[in-house]
Amino acid sequence: MPLKIERIYTKPVDMNGYRILVDRVWPRGISKVNAALDDWYKTIAPTKELREWFAHDPEKYPEFKTRYETELNANPDLQDFLNLIKDKLKRGNVIMLYGAKDETHNQAVVLEDFIQDKLLQ
């Protein structure tokens, strides 16, 4: 089954799957009821320091990607997160939700590629 990413502020494209928020901070203006989440895995998101350094600047994205992947590899929750994703993908879609406005330069894009690489190893 597919692993997808979706911006939490857009009308849900797909409600068919395990919906997990991968931001460290709860998205402004979104109620927990309307988010329709199955899980919130904030410990897998970039650290506050990395997030603030990046500031969603597309020019910094390549370096952000490298730094975030380094953080992920050192994250003590990584294996539990990967096991969760792998388990959920056996049963259906997994939709990782994020709040960033930029749909191509954000942590969910990095995380999606990172997970695909790790699960294919």
TrEMBL record:
Keywords: Methyltransferase, Transferase. GO terms for biological process: methylation. InterPro entries: YeaO-like. GO terms for molecular function: methyltransferase activity. PANTHER family: CYTOPLASMIC PROTEIN, CYTOPLASMIC PROTEIN-RELATED. This is Uroporphyrin-III C-methyltransferase.
